[in-house]
Design brief:
Layout: H1 3-6, H2 8-35, H3 41-63, H4 72-76, H5 81-113, H6 124-128, H7 130-150
Helix pairs in contact: 2-3, 3-7, 5-7
């Protein structure tokens, strides 16, 4: 199985976010060095892109079985491997489901209130809507990885 192709969207999002963060940070440093002023929008945009980078990177790690998880119990009780894998999936889906729910509610409220970001004056929901979407994508990647582990197509150790 070629995991590099499985999370292609997240890999592209993470790469783009990292490149843009690097470019705007470099531009901000250069401008500040020569003019003693800085771009006001860079922090706002960088924080947004860091959230994208974090969730997209976590999704890639999840799909390729490189995310932090506890394998101690699986090794200690090999006969309970399958129920433990299912329990890990259920616990992770519950946490990510809460992120999807509350971040979705937050994005909807930001849209309804028509609140704007302080630096650029853009609608806040543009930033926030990525949280539930990427958390939902993480649930998909988690489910793919869990099925591969249960079917023996993915080793238990990364």
């Amino acid at each position: 199985m070629n995991n590099r192709q499985d999370a292609r969207l997240e890999r592209v999002l993470a790469t783009l976010a990292l490149v843009i963060i690097s470019l705007i940070s470099l531009a901000n440093v250069v401008v500040r060095y020569f003019t003693d002023a800085s771009f006001a929008f860079t922090e706002e945009l960088s924080v947004f892109l860091l959230v994208i980078l974090t969730f997209a990177g976590a999704s890639v790690a999840m799909r390729s079985n490189r995310h932090i998880r506890i394998g101690f119990l699986e090794r200690l009780f090999p006969r309970l491997r399958v129920p433990l894998i299912v329990l890990q999936w259920l616990a992770s889906v519950a946490v990510l489901g809460l992120v999807v729910w509350f971040a979705g509610q937050f994005a909807l409220e930001e849209y309804q209130w028509e609140s704007e970001s302080p630096g650029l004056g853009l609608p806040n929901w543009w930033y926030v809507v990525w949280l539930p979407l990427l958390a939902l994508l993480m649930i998909v990647r988690l489910s793919q990885m869990t099925l591969d582990r249960l079917r023996g197509r993915l080793t238990d150790e990364p």
